[in-house]
Amino acid sequence: MVRTQVTLTEAQAEGLERLAHVRGLSVPEYISRVLEETLKREQDDHRVRWERAVQAIGRYSSTDGRSASEDHDEMLAEAYGWRD
Q1: How far apart are CA 58 and CA 61, in angstroms?
Q2: pTM of the model
Q3: Where does the chain show beta strands of DSSP type E?
Q4: Long-range contacts: 6-11, Cβ < 8 Å, 24+?
């Protein structure tokens, strides 16, 4: 375990104490649990976003037979009406 020190505003400290009390936890235990849940949720969100991105690879194709990976500059110029 690592000990740390945090500076809170009066309102933050009061809110933290109230939330911990309502759950029957000490403030340090409440902070540890909330942090653990937040880290897990963020890790899960990252994993889900990564899986969705991987699933999209190769899923879409052009109807006119062009490759956006090869012709992207020309396709953007056409889409935005840019000319040389």
Answers
A1: 7
A2: 0.56
A3: none
A4: none
